[in-house]
Design brief:
9 helices, 5-stranded mixed beta sheet, Metallo-beta-lactamase, Chain A, 2 domains
Length: 338
């Protein structure tokens, strides 16, 4: 196992007094694990994020908690950073079994309202996003995938508690501060332990990759604009130890935030250059760019990552249009840039 993937090794790893990092498996060759963090509290455990509701993830959670003297039944509360499946669904599954309290940022309510209701795929906001991108090929592929698998609203439920704005969350011997950081999702939160020098960053700040922007069930108007503003909010906090959802723990949130801001500045320039060279839609622009740290061509990505790439490109183009660096007009439901 390389140093870059050492963090996915199963177990419970102490990252601070009373705080343990527990990587749980994901069914993907890309993101292979998600870190949940178990915080020892007077009444049991508080978990930051819950993982994906998979049998393998549940078994690994049970084994890892046993290694530090706890059981799943000892979890009293989940503080979830955002509503994505790999962070939220196992928290809901555990709640069904033990009544564990689940907390989530209020900004995720519109997304959950979509996810908890059934409806025909043709009415999905994600299809509308791809239509605005001019990604007709991807729309047909997505419809075919939904016909094969479908969406099960029973997997999703509302939380017990909505966290609104900056909120203090007192634990025994520890004070957490929830800070809204929209961008990756509308209601993303990071949880900080300022006295302990820790930030439970979810997907907002990741050490090796950049979080996806713009592909949501209930998208906002400028997800990249929100994300860049949220990075600056985090940059204004004291520099804390980075406890990410994907990747190893690192020593400086600020250093990674600076790198992410530089990355998106470069990406905005790249998108502007592609538009200047003649691309008109987000889909055309995404196809002209390279993706991941391996500089892969768009056609080398699987369908899901092509959708992420396309909607993220649109998010960059919308920021460029808002800045006046490119023009924008609507051709029916599709945005055209020049």
């Amino acid at each position: 196992m390389s140093d870059r993937t050492e963090w996915i090794k199963p177990g419970a790893f102490q990252v601070a007094p009373g705080v343990h990092r527990i990587p749980l498996p994901l069914p993907s060759d890309g993101l292979r694990a998600v870190n949940v963090y178990a915080i020892e509290d007077a009444e049991g455990l508080v978990l930051i994020d819950g993982g994906w509701a998979l049998d393998e993830a549940r078994r690994q959670l049970e084994t890892s908690l046993k290694d530090i003297g706890f059981r799943v039944a000892d979890i009293t509360r989940f503080l979830v950073t955002h509503v994505h499946r790999d962070h939220y669904t196992q928290a809901i599954a555990v709640r069904k079994e033990f009544g564990t309290r689940v907390s989530l940022g209020i900004g995720e309510r519109p997304t959950l309202e979509v996810l908890t209701r059934s409806g025909p795929p043709d009415r999905s906001p994600q299809l509308d996003q791809l239509l605005a991108c001019g990604a007709h090929t991807l729309i047909e592929q997505l419809r075919a995938a939904w016909r094969e698998g479908g969406h099960d609203p029973a997997e999703w439920e509302m939380p017990d508690e909505w966290i609104e704005g900056r909120a203090e969350l007192p634990l025994s011997g520890r004070q957490l501060l929830a800070v809204p950081t929209p961008g990756h999702t509308r209601g993303h939160l990071v949880y900080t332990d300022l006295a302990g020098g820790l930030m439970f960053a979810g997907d907002h700040v990741l050490p090796h990759i950049t979080p996806s922007i713009g592909f949501e069930s209930a998208p906002e108007s400028s997800p990249l604009g929100s994300y860049l503003a949220s990075l600056k909010v985090v940059r204004e906090l004291p520099d804390l130890r980075l406890l990410p959802a994907h990747g190893p723990v690192t020593d400086s949130v600020h250093a990674r935030v600076d790198a992410l801001l530089d990355h998106h500045a470069e990406r905005l320039d790249a998108c502007a250059s592609v538009i200047a060279a003649g691309a008109g839609t987000a889909y055309e622009t995404a196809r002209a760019l390279t993706w991941t740290r391996h500089e892969r061509h768009f056609d080398e990505l699987d369908m899901f990552n092509q959708m992420l790439a396309t909607t993220e490109t649109r998010a960059h183009l919308e920021v460029l249009a808002a800045q006046g660096r490119i023009g924008k007009r609507m051709d029916g439901p599709t945005a055209v840039y020049a």
